[in-house]
Amino acid sequence: MIIGTAKESYPADEALLTTAPQRVWMTIFVIALIAAPFVLSNYWLYLACLAMINVISATGLNVLTGYTGQVSLGQAAFMAVGAYTVAYLERSLGTPFLLNILAGGVIAAAIGLVVGLPSLRVKGLYLAIATIAASFILHFVFVNWTAVTNGNSGATLAPATVFGIELATYDRLYWLIMPFAVLLVWGAANLFRTRIGRAFIAIRDRDISAEVLGIPLLRYKLMSFAIASFYAGIAGGLWAYLFRVVTPESFPFLTSIFLLAAIIVGGMGTILGGILGAVFMTLTPELLRVVVDLASVFVPDAATLLSPVRTIVFGALIVGFLILEPRGLTEIVDRIRRFFRLWPFRT
Amino acid sequence: MSEWLFFLEVTLAGLGSGALLALTALAYVLIYKATRVVNLAVGEMLMLGAYLFFAFAAGWGLSAWIAIPLAIIGGGLVGGIVERGLIRPMLGESAISVFMVTVGLGSVIVGLVELVWGTDPRALPAFIDTSPLFLGEAYVSRKIAVAFVTAAIVIGLFLILFRFWRGGVALRATATDQAAAYSCGINVPGVYSAAWVIGGATAAGAGLLLGAIGGISPVMGVFGLSALVVVIVGGLDSVLGALIGGLALGMIQSWTSTYVGGEYTNVVTFGIMIFALMLRPYGLFGTHEIERL
């Protein structure tokens, strides 16, 4: 409880944003989100779209790993399921894009339920390894079920259309992706104020105690898997509309590690962490590109160094955050907030 | 008759790669037994070992018989540095966090190798005679036979060391009960370091055998995932499980790729793993962990 925020009514206590500065910052943030397509260049809009897709997927993984404590290394495979569902529906049935994206989420959630089944018997690291296995098996399906996925050559799809307008440019796609990101993150933030969300947290903190308290473990673990996969499926569906081609290599195993790294870097078990981590991890490779461009003046073949340097920085970020700042970027933000709480009276 | 002979040859080739799997699995088991860390970077440490050998033998032009021990010592050194620098600060953190540290470490090693040696696959300088070998009538590649014999000797050596060597007993004691081992005067941090050094050296050794058979590239670390399947099926803390699981998986992979098709290898491998996990969550030979509240 923060000093000076005495709550006098239940609605005040239940509010998502409790303090005036939080509301001010949120207003600024919403204005920035709406203003972005009018100010940003095409390239930055593309990055914004990609970052928001990663935010959706990372938030889903955060529900599963950060809040329920079930480590999954299969999130990318569920994104692929969503992307392929959208591609298939768009190509062969031509259904409206909103329906396609929702179907992507639902089918990913259904497969997530199946993949979550081992959580009945195994947990912790063994579960993480079981999800690795699941993602490799799904990859095999994507390569070989050519009737639906078109195999290794990949599935291309037409852009989404709304009232005859093609959502083909990044400033239009932004209006498709941004509402999804906002809605889903908002939904996740509210989830942890309900019985289901509280049960997830109880399972994370001690699963046996949670079961003793009357939480059916299997049902809630599967529910968590389904929610995480639903988020991944939606993110994958949006990804399919952003790039308009889906191949089995679109969502490699590395993407799963990327998403897990995003919530570690951002801060596990906080909504803000999923957002910060996904945005940070999406933008870091671009930052490195700028650095390498600058270095190319001094180093002859700097461009060839870009890919290895990205790989090294990616790994070093995971290791560094886990050792030096285990609670992630959220903790850094909190530290800054604590500093300014009584500022300038006490620093 | 010739069909049967072909089957025998396929099986022997499978046993050879299975021995390599078992050797790699041994690196997982060693590190897990002593420190309770599943080190996903074993595959990358294996790759680094192969590249070290490449650097010593092809880059510096050393004879293979000097380069091999150097590469293995290098692998051990890497293991030791990783333990002191990255794993020791994570002492007491949750298993998942430490696991993720090793995932990040794997990424760093891949990046470093690509930075130094580039991404192109390369062939290791030949240090094994290539003339074919016949076991009765069945043909065996000499490289695979050498890999099998080496792996068998090393695993046998480990089994003996665990049983009779003081350090091996200390390692088993630490694995069973850390606090009790401490109070018996066992240098537990020393055991931790030793396990990582030996694990790193084993991985490097497996790496140069694997590189001698199939060439080296920065992506050869995925071999570590196959070995991880072996460890999960066999039990994370069982040397015997690693041995039997490795040989079995090697043969199964070999049969699958010959009789069903190469693209099915991964599915069968991971399918077996999920099946084994559902049947016996702690592996075929692993000890069942009892959870305390």
Automatic annotation (TrEMBL), chain A:
The entry lists its GO molecular-function terms as: branched-chain amino acid transmembrane transporter activity
**InterPro entries, alphabetized:** ABC_transp_permease, LivM-like
Q: Which residues cross the membrane?
A: 20-38, 71-89, 95-117, 124-143, 173-192, 222-242, 254-280
Subcellular location(s): the record lists: Cell membrane
Q: Does the keyword Transmembrane apply?
A: yes
Per UniProt, what is the membrane topology? Multi-pass membrane protein
Q: Name one GO cellular component term.
A: plasma membrane
Keyword check for Transmembrane, yes or no.
yes
Q: Which UniProt keywords apply?
A: Cell membrane, Membrane, Transmembrane, Transmembrane helix
One Pfam family from the UniProt entry?
Answer: BPD_transp_2
CDD domains this protein is in? Answer: TM_PBP1_LivM_like
Q: What is this protein's name?
A: High-affinity branched-chain amino acid transport system permease protein LivH
Q: Which organism is it from?
A: Palleronia abyssalis
UniProtKB/TrEMBL annotation, chain B:
Q: How does it sit in the membrane?
A: Multi-pass membrane protein
The record lists the membrane-crossing segments as 6-30, 37-56, 62-82, 94-117, 144-162, 195-216, 222-252, 264-283
Recite the UniProt keywords alphabetically: Amino-acid transport, Cell membrane, Membrane, Transmembrane, Transmembrane helix, Transport
CDD domains, per the entry: TM_PBP1_LivH_like
Location of the protein in the cell: Cell membrane
**PANTHER family named among the record's database cross-references:** ABC TRANSPORTER PERMEASE PROTEIN, BRANCHED-CHAIN AMINO ACID TRANSPORT SYSTEM PERMEASE PROTEIN LIVH
In which family does this protein belong, per the annotation?
Answer: Belongs to the binding-protein-dependent transport system permease family. LivHM subfamily.
Q: What is this protein called?
A: High-affinity branched-chain amino acid transport system permease protein LivH
